[in-house]
Amino acid sequence: MNESLVKSRAFINGEWVKTNKRFRVDDPFSQELIVEVSDCGEEEANQAIEAAHNAFQTWSKTTAQERSDKLLAWYDLIIENLDDLAEILTTEQGKPLKEAKGEIQYGANYIKWFAEEALRIDGDIIPSPDGQKQIHVIKQPVGVVGIITPWNFPQAMIARKVAPALAAGCTVVIKPAAETPLSALAMAELSLQAGIPKGVINLVPTSEASVIGEAITSSSKVRKISFTGSTKVGKILMSQAAENVQRVTMELGGNAPFIVFDDVDIDDAVEGIMASKFRNSGQTCVCANRVFIHETIYQEIVEKLTNKVESMKTGSGLEDDVSITPLINQAGIDKVKRLVQSAKDKGAKVIVGGNVSDKHNQIYEPTILTDVSFDMDIACEEIFGPVLSLIPFSNEESVVEQANATKAGLAAYVYTDDRHRIKRLSEQIESGMIGFNEGIISNHMAPFGGVKESGMGREGSKYGISDYLDIKYLCIK
Ligand SMILES: NC(=O)C1=CN([C@@H]2O[C@H](COP(=O)(O)OP(=O)(O)OC[C@H]3O[C@@H](n4cnc5c(N)ncnc54)[C@H](OP(=O)(O)O)[C@@H]3O)[C@@H](O)[C@H]2O)C=CC1
Ligand SMILES: O=C(O)CCCC(=O)O
Protein backbone atom coordinates (compact mmCIF):
# COMPACT_ATOMS: atom_id res chain seq x y z
CA MET A 1 0.00 0.00 0.00
CA ASN A 2 1.24 3.51 -0.81
CA GLU A 3 1.60 4.90 2.73
CA SER A 4 1.64 8.52 1.50
CA LEU A 5 -2.05 8.11 0.59
CA VAL A 6 -3.01 6.61 3.96
CA LYS A 7 -4.08 9.70 5.90
CA SER A 8 -5.33 9.60 9.46
CA ARG A 9 -6.23 13.19 10.27
CA ALA A 10 -9.27 15.30 9.50
CA PHE A 11 -8.99 17.56 6.45
CA ILE A 12 -10.17 21.10 7.21
CA ASN A 13 -9.37 24.23 5.23
CA GLY A 14 -6.62 22.44 3.31
CA GLU A 15 -4.83 21.32 6.51
CA TRP A 16 -4.49 17.88 8.12
CA VAL A 17 -5.99 18.45 11.55
CA LYS A 18 -5.22 16.37 14.64
CA THR A 19 -7.96 15.82 17.22
CA ASN A 20 -7.70 14.71 20.84
CA LYS A 21 -9.82 11.63 20.24
CA ARG A 22 -9.20 8.94 17.61
CA PHE A 23 -11.14 5.89 16.45
CA ARG A 24 -10.10 2.55 14.98
CA VAL A 25 -10.41 1.60 11.34
CA ASP A 26 -10.13 -2.18 11.04
CA ASP A 27 -9.59 -4.47 8.06
CA PRO A 28 -12.79 -6.56 7.86
CA PHE A 29 -10.83 -9.60 6.65
CA SER A 30 -7.88 -9.69 9.07
CA GLN A 31 -9.97 -7.86 11.69
CA GLU A 32 -6.78 -6.06 12.63
CA LEU A 33 -6.24 -2.35 13.07
CA ILE A 34 -5.25 -0.51 9.88
CA VAL A 35 -4.89 2.91 11.48
CA GLU A 36 -6.50 5.15 14.10
CA VAL A 37 -8.20 8.17 12.60
CA SER A 38 -9.04 11.63 14.02
CA ASP A 39 -12.44 11.55 15.67
CA CYS A 40 -14.17 14.84 14.90
CA GLY A 41 -16.90 16.40 17.01
CA GLU A 42 -19.05 19.52 16.86
CA GLU A 43 -16.06 21.86 17.08
CA GLU A 44 -14.31 20.39 14.02
CA ALA A 45 -17.60 20.19 12.11
CA ASN A 46 -18.15 23.91 12.73
CA GLN A 47 -14.57 24.71 11.67
CA ALA A 48 -15.15 22.74 8.47
CA ILE A 49 -18.44 24.55 7.79
CA GLU A 50 -16.75 27.92 8.36
CA ALA A 51 -13.89 26.98 6.02
CA ALA A 52 -16.34 25.82 3.35
CA HIS A 53 -18.39 29.00 3.78
CA ASN A 54 -15.31 31.22 3.35
CA ALA A 55 -14.04 29.22 0.37
CA PHE A 56 -17.48 29.49 -1.26
CA GLN A 57 -17.02 33.27 -1.58
CA THR A 58 -14.16 32.75 -4.06
CA TRP A 59 -14.81 29.26 -5.53
CA SER A 60 -18.35 30.23 -6.57
CA LYS A 61 -16.89 33.15 -8.54
CA THR A 62 -14.29 31.15 -10.46
CA THR A 63 -14.97 30.58 -14.14
CA ALA A 64 -16.50 27.31 -15.24
CA GLN A 65 -13.26 26.60 -17.13
CA GLU A 66 -11.17 26.99 -13.96
CA ARG A 67 -13.42 24.58 -12.03
CA SER A 68 -13.41 22.14 -14.92
CA ASP A 69 -9.60 22.20 -15.13
CA LYS A 70 -9.22 21.54 -11.40
CA LEU A 71 -11.63 18.62 -11.55
CA LEU A 72 -9.78 17.17 -14.52
CA ALA A 73 -6.46 17.49 -12.67
CA TRP A 74 -8.05 15.59 -9.76
CA TYR A 75 -9.36 12.93 -12.16
CA ASP A 76 -5.87 12.47 -13.68
CA LEU A 77 -4.30 11.97 -10.25
CA ILE A 78 -6.95 9.44 -9.24
CA ILE A 79 -6.28 7.42 -12.39
CA GLU A 80 -2.50 7.66 -11.84
CA ASN A 81 -3.01 6.27 -8.32
CA LEU A 82 -5.78 3.82 -9.18
CA ASP A 83 -4.01 0.68 -7.98
CA ASP A 84 -3.05 2.19 -4.63
CA LEU A 85 -6.50 3.66 -4.06
CA ALA A 86 -8.05 0.28 -4.84
CA GLU A 87 -5.79 -1.44 -2.34
CA ILE A 88 -6.74 1.05 0.37
CA LEU A 89 -10.41 0.53 -0.51
CA THR A 90 -10.20 -3.27 -0.33
CA THR A 91 -8.25 -3.14 2.92
CA GLU A 92 -10.83 -1.01 4.74
CA GLN A 93 -14.01 -2.21 3.00
CA GLY A 94 -13.23 -5.82 2.08
CA LYS A 95 -14.50 -6.03 -1.53
CA PRO A 96 -12.45 -7.97 -4.12
CA LEU A 97 -9.55 -5.92 -5.50
CA LYS A 98 -10.95 -6.20 -9.03
CA GLU A 99 -14.21 -4.63 -7.85
CA ALA A 100 -12.28 -1.97 -5.91
CA LYS A 101 -10.38 -1.03 -9.09
CA GLY A 102 -13.73 -0.87 -10.87
CA GLU A 103 -15.08 1.41 -8.16
CA ILE A 104 -12.12 3.82 -8.37
CA GLN A 105 -12.59 4.11 -12.14
CA TYR A 106 -16.39 4.40 -11.68
CA GLY A 107 -15.98 7.23 -9.14
CA ALA A 108 -13.35 8.96 -11.27
CA ASN A 109 -15.73 8.88 -14.24
CA TYR A 110 -18.16 11.11 -12.30
CA ILE A 111 -15.36 13.63 -11.73
CA LYS A 112 -14.47 13.75 -15.42
CA TRP A 113 -18.14 13.87 -16.41
CA PHE A 114 -18.93 16.82 -14.14
CA ALA A 115 -15.71 18.60 -15.17
CA GLU A 116 -17.31 18.59 -18.62
CA GLU A 117 -20.80 19.48 -17.33
CA ALA A 118 -19.35 22.53 -15.50
CA LEU A 119 -18.98 24.10 -18.94
CA ARG A 120 -22.66 23.60 -19.75
CA ILE A 121 -24.49 25.36 -16.90
CA ASP A 122 -26.62 27.33 -19.32
CA GLY A 123 -29.32 29.86 -18.50
CA ASP A 124 -32.40 30.74 -20.57
CA ILE A 125 -34.18 33.67 -22.16
CA ILE A 126 -37.97 33.22 -22.14
CA PRO A 127 -40.52 35.35 -24.07
CA SER A 128 -42.58 37.58 -21.73
CA PRO A 129 -46.41 37.64 -21.82
CA ASP A 130 -46.63 41.33 -22.84
CA GLY A 131 -43.48 41.55 -24.93
CA GLN A 132 -42.34 44.54 -22.85
CA LYS A 133 -39.82 42.72 -20.68
CA GLN A 134 -37.15 40.09 -20.94
CA ILE A 135 -37.37 37.01 -18.76
CA HIS A 136 -33.86 35.80 -18.05
CA VAL A 137 -32.96 32.69 -16.09
CA ILE A 138 -29.53 32.24 -14.54
CA LYS A 139 -28.23 29.38 -12.42
CA GLN A 140 -26.14 29.81 -9.30
CA PRO A 141 -24.47 27.37 -6.90
CA VAL A 142 -26.65 26.61 -3.84
CA GLY A 143 -23.80 27.19 -1.35
CA VAL A 144 -22.09 24.92 1.17
CA VAL A 145 -23.14 21.26 0.82
CA GLY A 146 -23.06 18.69 3.65
CA ILE A 147 -22.26 15.23 2.26
CA ILE A 148 -22.81 12.01 4.25
CA THR A 149 -21.80 8.72 2.62
CA PRO A 150 -21.95 4.97 3.36
CA TRP A 151 -19.26 2.32 3.64
CA ASN A 152 -20.30 0.12 0.68
CA PHE A 153 -18.89 2.44 -2.01
CA PRO A 154 -16.49 4.61 0.01
CA GLN A 155 -14.91 6.30 -3.01
CA ALA A 156 -17.62 6.40 -5.68
CA MET A 157 -20.38 7.80 -3.45
CA ILE A 158 -18.14 10.71 -2.49
CA ALA A 159 -17.07 11.33 -6.09
CA ARG A 160 -20.69 11.19 -7.31
CA LYS A 161 -21.65 14.00 -4.90
CA VAL A 162 -18.50 16.14 -4.68
CA ALA A 163 -17.96 16.33 -8.45
CA PRO A 164 -21.31 17.97 -9.35
CA ALA A 165 -21.10 20.18 -6.23
CA LEU A 166 -17.67 21.55 -7.18
CA ALA A 167 -18.59 21.82 -10.86
CA ALA A 168 -21.59 23.98 -9.89
CA GLY A 169 -19.41 26.23 -7.71
CA CYS A 170 -20.40 24.81 -4.30
CA THR A 171 -18.00 23.89 -1.51
CA VAL A 172 -18.41 20.78 0.68
CA VAL A 173 -18.13 19.28 4.15
CA ILE A 174 -17.96 15.48 3.93
CA LYS A 175 -18.68 12.97 6.69
CA PRO A 176 -17.52 9.55 5.45
CA ALA A 177 -18.73 6.30 7.03
CA ALA A 178 -16.85 5.37 10.21
CA GLU A 179 -15.86 1.99 8.76
CA THR A 180 -14.29 3.48 5.61
CA PRO A 181 -12.78 6.96 6.02
CA LEU A 182 -9.43 6.09 4.39
CA SER A 183 -10.61 6.10 0.76
CA ALA A 184 -12.19 9.48 1.40
CA LEU A 185 -9.03 10.89 3.02
CA ALA A 186 -6.88 9.61 0.14
CA MET A 187 -9.22 11.44 -2.26
CA ALA A 188 -8.78 14.61 -0.19
CA GLU A 189 -4.98 14.28 -0.42
CA LEU A 190 -5.21 14.01 -4.21
CA SER A 191 -7.54 17.02 -4.36
CA LEU A 192 -4.83 19.01 -2.57
CA GLN A 193 -2.22 17.83 -5.08
CA ALA A 194 -4.64 18.73 -7.91
CA GLY A 195 -4.68 22.33 -6.70
CA ILE A 196 -8.30 22.45 -5.55
CA PRO A 197 -8.18 25.50 -3.24
CA LYS A 198 -8.20 25.14 0.53
CA GLY A 199 -11.63 25.03 2.14
CA VAL A 200 -13.40 23.85 -1.02
CA ILE A 201 -13.29 20.23 0.19
CA ASN A 202 -13.39 19.50 3.94
CA LEU A 203 -13.57 16.07 5.50
CA VAL A 204 -14.55 15.24 9.08
CA PRO A 205 -14.24 11.56 10.02
CA THR A 206 -16.08 10.65 13.20
CA SER A 207 -17.29 7.83 15.39
CA GLU A 208 -20.30 9.98 16.36
CA ALA A 209 -22.28 10.38 13.15
CA SER A 210 -25.27 12.06 14.76
CA VAL A 211 -23.11 14.85 16.25
CA ILE A 212 -21.77 15.79 12.81
CA GLY A 213 -25.21 15.29 11.25
CA GLU A 214 -26.70 17.75 13.73
CA ALA A 215 -23.88 20.29 13.26
CA ILE A 216 -24.39 20.20 9.50
CA THR A 217 -28.18 20.38 9.55
CA SER A 218 -28.34 23.04 12.27
CA SER A 219 -26.06 25.46 10.42
CA SER A 220 -27.74 28.11 8.30
CA LYS A 221 -24.46 28.32 6.34
CA VAL A 222 -25.07 24.83 4.91
CA ARG A 223 -27.63 25.12 2.14
CA LYS A 224 -27.91 21.51 1.04
CA ILE A 225 -27.52 17.95 2.32
CA SER A 226 -26.63 15.05 0.03
CA PHE A 227 -26.93 11.64 1.68
CA THR A 228 -26.56 8.00 0.64
CA GLY A 229 -27.44 5.34 3.18
CA SER A 230 -30.34 3.72 4.96
CA THR A 231 -33.90 5.02 4.70
CA LYS A 232 -34.01 5.24 8.50
CA VAL A 233 -31.12 7.72 8.69
CA GLY A 234 -32.34 9.52 5.56
CA LYS A 235 -35.62 10.28 7.33
CA ILE A 236 -33.78 11.63 10.38
CA LEU A 237 -31.64 13.91 8.20
CA MET A 238 -34.65 15.12 6.20
CA SER A 239 -36.47 16.13 9.34
CA GLN A 240 -33.35 17.87 10.71
CA ALA A 241 -32.77 19.61 7.36
CA ALA A 242 -36.30 21.05 7.56
CA GLU A 243 -35.16 23.34 10.41
CA ASN A 244 -33.11 25.50 8.01
CA VAL A 245 -35.00 24.48 4.85
CA GLN A 246 -31.86 22.86 3.43
CA ARG A 247 -32.30 21.19 0.05
CA VAL A 248 -31.89 17.43 0.16
CA THR A 249 -30.69 14.73 -2.21
CA MET A 250 -31.47 11.33 -0.71
CA GLU A 251 -30.22 8.01 -2.13
CA LEU A 252 -31.80 5.55 0.28
CA GLY A 253 -32.41 1.83 0.62
CA GLY A 254 -33.83 -0.40 -2.11
CA ASN A 255 -35.63 -3.73 -2.37
CA ALA A 256 -35.00 -4.50 -6.03
CA PRO A 257 -37.25 -7.01 -7.80
CA PHE A 258 -35.52 -9.04 -10.52
CA ILE A 259 -38.18 -10.55 -12.82
CA VAL A 260 -37.38 -13.30 -15.33
CA PHE A 261 -40.10 -14.10 -17.90
CA ASP A 262 -40.30 -17.40 -19.77
CA ASP A 263 -39.37 -15.95 -23.19
CA VAL A 264 -35.72 -15.21 -22.36
CA ASP A 265 -32.31 -16.70 -23.05
CA ILE A 266 -31.93 -18.53 -19.74
CA ASP A 267 -28.13 -18.36 -19.57
CA ASP A 268 -28.27 -14.63 -20.15
CA ALA A 269 -30.78 -14.22 -17.30
CA VAL A 270 -28.63 -16.34 -14.98
CA GLU A 271 -25.59 -14.14 -15.76
CA GLY A 272 -27.70 -11.04 -15.02
CA ILE A 273 -28.91 -12.41 -11.66
CA MET A 274 -25.38 -13.36 -10.60
CA ALA A 275 -23.94 -9.96 -11.57
CA SER A 276 -26.70 -7.99 -9.88
CA LYS A 277 -26.86 -10.06 -6.69
CA PHE A 278 -23.25 -10.73 -5.81
CA ARG A 279 -21.53 -7.41 -6.57
CA ASN A 280 -19.84 -6.30 -3.33
CA SER A 281 -21.02 -9.58 -1.70
CA GLY A 282 -24.60 -8.36 -1.99
CA GLN A 283 -23.97 -5.07 -0.19
CA THR A 284 -25.43 -2.62 -2.69
CA CYS A 285 -28.70 -0.74 -2.64
CA VAL A 286 -29.39 -1.80 -6.25
CA CYS A 287 -28.73 -5.54 -5.69
CA ALA A 288 -31.46 -7.99 -6.75
CA ASN A 289 -33.29 -8.48 -3.44
CA ARG A 290 -36.26 -10.57 -4.64
CA VAL A 291 -35.82 -12.74 -7.73
CA PHE A 292 -39.13 -13.62 -9.41
CA ILE A 293 -38.83 -16.45 -11.93
CA HIS A 294 -41.60 -17.66 -14.22
CA GLU A 295 -42.79 -21.06 -12.96
CA THR A 296 -42.10 -22.84 -16.27
CA ILE A 297 -38.36 -22.06 -16.13
CA TYR A 298 -37.99 -21.89 -12.34
CA GLN A 299 -36.39 -25.32 -11.83
CA GLU A 300 -33.92 -24.91 -14.69
CA ILE A 301 -32.80 -21.51 -13.38
CA VAL A 302 -32.45 -22.84 -9.82
CA GLU A 303 -30.15 -25.58 -11.12
CA LYS A 304 -28.02 -23.22 -13.20
CA LEU A 305 -27.71 -20.73 -10.34
CA THR A 306 -26.79 -23.56 -7.97
CA ASN A 307 -23.88 -24.59 -10.21
CA LYS A 308 -22.61 -21.05 -10.37
CA VAL A 309 -23.03 -20.25 -6.68
CA GLU A 310 -21.35 -23.49 -5.59
CA SER A 311 -18.25 -22.55 -7.55
CA MET A 312 -17.84 -19.06 -6.02
CA LYS A 313 -14.60 -18.59 -4.12
CA THR A 314 -14.68 -16.89 -0.72
CA GLY A 315 -11.74 -15.20 1.01
CA SER A 316 -9.74 -12.01 1.30
CA GLY A 317 -10.43 -9.32 -1.30
CA LEU A 318 -6.68 -9.22 -1.95
CA GLU A 319 -6.60 -12.89 -3.13
CA ASP A 320 -6.96 -13.70 -6.83
CA ASP A 321 -10.31 -14.90 -8.23
CA VAL A 322 -12.21 -14.28 -5.01
CA SER A 323 -15.81 -13.19 -5.45
CA ILE A 324 -17.29 -13.32 -1.95
CA THR A 325 -15.45 -11.39 0.77
CA PRO A 326 -16.29 -10.38 4.36
CA LEU A 327 -19.37 -8.33 5.11
CA ILE A 328 -18.57 -4.94 6.53
CA ASN A 329 -19.04 -5.79 10.20
CA GLN A 330 -20.68 -8.14 12.72
CA ALA A 331 -23.95 -6.20 12.48
CA GLY A 332 -24.05 -7.01 8.76
CA ILE A 333 -23.53 -10.72 9.50
CA ASP A 334 -26.17 -10.66 12.25
CA LYS A 335 -28.71 -9.08 9.89
CA VAL A 336 -28.19 -11.74 7.18
CA LYS A 337 -28.32 -14.54 9.78
CA ARG A 338 -31.61 -13.21 11.17
CA LEU A 339 -33.21 -12.85 7.72
CA VAL A 340 -32.18 -16.35 6.58
CA GLN A 341 -33.23 -17.97 9.87
CA SER A 342 -36.65 -16.34 9.91
CA ALA A 343 -37.19 -17.28 6.22
CA LYS A 344 -36.33 -20.91 7.07
CA ASP A 345 -38.69 -20.82 10.04
CA LYS A 346 -41.48 -19.78 7.65
CA GLY A 347 -40.76 -22.51 5.09
CA ALA A 348 -37.98 -21.28 2.78
CA LYS A 349 -35.49 -23.97 1.66
CA VAL A 350 -31.72 -23.51 1.63
CA ILE A 351 -30.34 -24.93 -1.64
CA VAL A 352 -26.74 -23.73 -1.23
CA GLY A 353 -24.95 -22.00 1.69
CA GLY A 354 -27.12 -20.69 4.50
CA ASN A 355 -24.35 -20.23 7.04
CA VAL A 356 -21.46 -18.09 8.13
CA SER A 357 -18.32 -19.51 6.49
CA ASP A 358 -16.40 -21.99 8.63
CA LYS A 359 -13.18 -20.38 7.32
CA HIS A 360 -13.99 -16.82 8.45
CA ASN A 361 -16.50 -15.45 10.93
CA GLN A 362 -17.32 -12.31 8.88
CA ILE A 363 -17.90 -14.06 5.55
CA TYR A 364 -21.43 -15.26 4.85
CA GLU A 365 -21.49 -18.13 2.35
CA PRO A 366 -23.13 -17.33 -0.99
CA THR A 367 -26.63 -18.68 -0.50
CA ILE A 368 -29.72 -19.66 -2.49
CA LEU A 369 -33.13 -19.76 -0.83
CA THR A 370 -36.16 -21.14 -2.65
CA ASP A 371 -39.86 -21.10 -1.67
CA VAL A 372 -39.55 -17.54 -0.41
CA SER A 373 -42.89 -15.81 0.21
CA PHE A 374 -44.09 -12.31 0.99
CA ASP A 375 -44.74 -12.74 4.66
CA MET A 376 -41.00 -13.31 5.16
CA ASP A 377 -38.79 -10.44 6.38
CA ILE A 378 -36.24 -11.38 3.70
CA ALA A 379 -38.72 -10.30 1.01
CA CYS A 380 -39.44 -7.00 2.77
CA GLU A 381 -36.03 -5.79 4.00
CA GLU A 382 -32.79 -4.98 2.19
CA ILE A 383 -30.71 -8.17 2.68
CA PHE A 384 -27.28 -6.51 2.17
CA GLY A 385 -25.57 -9.89 1.91
CA PRO A 386 -24.90 -12.67 -0.64
CA VAL A 387 -28.31 -14.35 -0.44
CA LEU A 388 -30.50 -15.06 -3.45
CA SER A 389 -34.21 -15.19 -2.58
CA LEU A 390 -36.10 -17.01 -5.34
CA ILE A 391 -39.86 -16.71 -5.84
CA PRO A 392 -41.85 -18.43 -8.66
CA PHE A 393 -44.63 -16.52 -10.44
CA SER A 394 -47.27 -17.39 -13.01
CA ASN A 395 -48.39 -14.20 -14.76
CA GLU A 396 -47.33 -10.65 -15.58
CA GLU A 397 -50.09 -8.85 -13.73
CA SER A 398 -49.46 -10.58 -10.41
CA VAL A 399 -45.67 -10.26 -10.59
CA VAL A 400 -45.88 -6.52 -11.26
CA GLU A 401 -48.19 -6.16 -8.29
CA GLN A 402 -45.76 -8.12 -6.10
CA ALA A 403 -42.74 -6.19 -7.39
CA ASN A 404 -44.45 -2.92 -6.44
CA ALA A 405 -45.61 -4.16 -3.01
CA THR A 406 -42.80 -2.40 -1.16
CA LYS A 407 -42.12 1.07 0.18
CA ALA A 408 -38.82 1.11 -1.71
CA GLY A 409 -38.47 2.07 -5.38
CA LEU A 410 -34.81 2.29 -6.35
CA ALA A 411 -33.82 -0.32 -8.96
CA ALA A 412 -35.70 -3.12 -10.74
CA TYR A 413 -34.66 -5.65 -13.37
CA VAL A 414 -36.76 -7.36 -16.03
CA TYR A 415 -35.62 -10.09 -18.39
CA THR A 416 -37.95 -10.56 -21.36
CA ASP A 417 -37.76 -10.65 -25.15
CA ASP A 418 -41.19 -9.10 -25.61
CA ARG A 419 -40.89 -5.44 -26.66
CA HIS A 420 -44.55 -4.74 -25.87
CA ARG A 421 -44.00 -6.01 -22.35
CA ILE A 422 -40.89 -3.83 -22.00
CA LYS A 423 -43.01 -0.80 -22.89
CA ARG A 424 -45.79 -1.76 -20.44
CA LEU A 425 -43.46 -2.54 -17.55
CA SER A 426 -41.29 0.51 -18.06
CA GLU A 427 -44.35 2.51 -17.02
CA GLN A 428 -45.91 0.13 -14.49
CA ILE A 429 -42.92 -0.72 -12.30
CA GLU A 430 -42.50 1.76 -9.48
CA SER A 431 -38.76 2.42 -9.37
CA GLY A 432 -36.30 5.11 -10.38
CA MET A 433 -34.23 2.75 -12.54
CA ILE A 434 -35.02 -0.41 -14.51
CA GLY A 435 -32.51 -2.77 -16.14
CA PHE A 436 -34.17 -4.54 -19.08
CA ASN A 437 -32.10 -7.62 -19.93
CA GLU A 438 -29.22 -6.08 -17.96
CA GLY A 439 -28.09 -6.77 -14.39
CA ILE A 440 -25.58 -3.90 -13.99
CA ILE A 441 -27.12 -0.50 -14.58
CA SER A 442 -24.92 2.04 -12.78
CA ASN A 443 -22.71 4.38 -14.78
CA HIS A 444 -21.77 8.05 -14.68
CA MET A 445 -23.80 8.98 -17.77
CA ALA A 446 -27.13 7.70 -16.40
CA PRO A 447 -29.41 9.31 -13.77
CA PHE A 448 -29.11 7.26 -10.56
CA GLY A 449 -31.89 7.63 -7.99
CA GLY A 450 -35.13 6.34 -6.56
CA VAL A 451 -38.83 6.96 -6.03
CA LYS A 452 -41.06 6.27 -2.99
CA GLU A 453 -38.99 5.74 0.19
CA SER A 454 -35.81 5.19 -1.85
CA GLY A 455 -35.35 8.92 -1.94
CA MET A 456 -35.25 11.95 -4.19
CA GLY A 457 -32.87 13.65 -6.58
CA ARG A 458 -30.72 12.15 -9.32
CA GLU A 459 -26.95 11.66 -9.37
CA GLY A 460 -24.74 11.40 -12.45
CA SER A 461 -25.86 12.22 -16.02
CA LYS A 462 -26.84 15.66 -17.32
CA TYR A 463 -29.50 15.81 -14.55
CA GLY A 464 -27.05 15.31 -11.66
CA ILE A 465 -25.81 18.89 -11.45
CA SER A 466 -29.23 20.54 -11.10
CA ASP A 467 -29.56 19.57 -7.41
CA TYR A 468 -26.55 21.81 -6.73
CA LEU A 469 -27.88 24.84 -8.60
CA ASP A 470 -30.51 27.44 -7.77
CA ILE A 471 -32.56 28.92 -10.58
CA LYS A 472 -32.84 32.71 -10.45
CA TYR A 473 -35.45 34.55 -12.55
CA LEU A 474 -34.61 38.08 -13.71
CA CYS A 475 -37.43 40.23 -15.05
CA ILE A 476 -35.75 42.93 -17.17
CA LYS A 477 -37.66 45.91 -18.54
N1 LIG B 1 -28.83 2.76 0.13
C1 LIG B 1 -27.59 2.52 0.41
O1 LIG B 1 -26.77 2.80 -0.40
C2 LIG B 1 -27.21 1.96 1.71
C3 LIG B 1 -28.11 1.28 2.47
N2 LIG B 1 -27.75 0.78 3.65
C4 LIG B 1 -28.76 0.02 4.40
O2 LIG B 1 -28.69 0.39 5.74
C5 LIG B 1 -28.40 -0.74 6.56
C6 LIG B 1 -27.55 -0.28 7.70
O3 LIG B 1 -26.31 0.24 7.23
P1 LIG B 1 -25.62 1.45 7.95
O4 LIG B 1 -24.20 1.54 7.66
O5 LIG B 1 -25.99 1.39 9.39
O6 LIG B 1 -26.31 2.69 7.19
P2 LIG B 1 -26.51 4.15 7.74
O7 LIG B 1 -27.59 4.79 7.01
O8 LIG B 1 -26.55 4.13 9.22
O9 LIG B 1 -25.10 4.86 7.36
C7 LIG B 1 -24.86 5.66 6.24
C8 LIG B 1 -24.12 6.93 6.65
O10 LIG B 1 -24.94 7.70 7.53
C9 LIG B 1 -24.21 7.99 8.72
N3 LIG B 1 -25.15 8.17 9.83
C10 LIG B 1 -25.72 7.24 10.62
N4 LIG B 1 -26.56 7.81 11.51
C11 LIG B 1 -26.50 9.15 11.29
C12 LIG B 1 -27.13 10.29 11.89
N5 LIG B 1 -27.99 10.18 12.90
N6 LIG B 1 -26.81 11.52 11.41
C13 LIG B 1 -25.94 11.66 10.39
N7 LIG B 1 -25.32 10.61 9.78
C14 LIG B 1 -25.60 9.38 10.21
C15 LIG B 1 -23.28 6.81 8.86
O11 LIG B 1 -22.22 7.12 9.75
P3 LIG B 1 -21.46 5.95 10.54
O12 LIG B 1 -20.76 5.15 9.51
O13 LIG B 1 -20.52 6.66 11.41
O14 LIG B 1 -22.51 5.19 11.27
C16 LIG B 1 -22.82 6.67 7.42
O15 LIG B 1 -21.88 7.66 7.10
C17 LIG B 1 -27.75 -1.72 5.62
O16 LIG B 1 -27.88 -3.05 6.06
C18 LIG B 1 -28.51 -1.47 4.36
O17 LIG B 1 -29.74 -2.16 4.38
C19 LIG B 1 -26.49 0.97 4.13
C20 LIG B 1 -25.54 1.64 3.43
C21 LIG B 1 -25.82 2.15 2.12
O1 LIG C 1 -25.36 0.72 -3.11
C1 LIG C 1 -25.27 1.93 -3.00
O2 LIG C 1 -25.09 2.47 -1.91
C2 LIG C 1 -25.38 2.83 -4.16
C3 LIG C 1 -24.25 2.71 -5.11
C4 LIG C 1 -24.34 1.56 -6.01
C5 LIG C 1 -24.09 1.95 -7.42
O3 LIG C 1 -23.72 3.08 -7.71
O4 LIG C 1 -24.30 1.09 -8.25
TrEMBL record:
Pfam families: Aldedh
SUPFAM superfamilies tied to this protein: ALDH-like (SSF53720)
Any one biological process term the GO annotation gives: gamma-aminobutyric acid catabolic process
Name of this protein: Aldehyde dehydrogenase
Similarity field: Belongs to the aldehyde dehydrogenase family.
GO MF terms, alphabetically ordered: succinate-semialdehyde dehydrogenase (NAD+) activity
Lineage top rank: taxon: Bacteria
Species annotation: Kangiella profundi
Keyword Oxidoreductase: yes
PROSITE patterns: ALDEHYDE_DEHYDR_CYS, ALDEHYDE_DEHYDR_GLU
InterPro entries, alphabetized: Ald_DH/histidinol_DH, Ald_DH_C, Ald_DH_CS_CYS, Ald_DH_CS_GLU, Ald_DH_N, Aldehyde_DH_dom, Aldehyde_DH_NAD(P), Aldehyde_DH_Superfamily
Keyword Oxidoreductase: yes
Protein keywords: Oxidoreductase
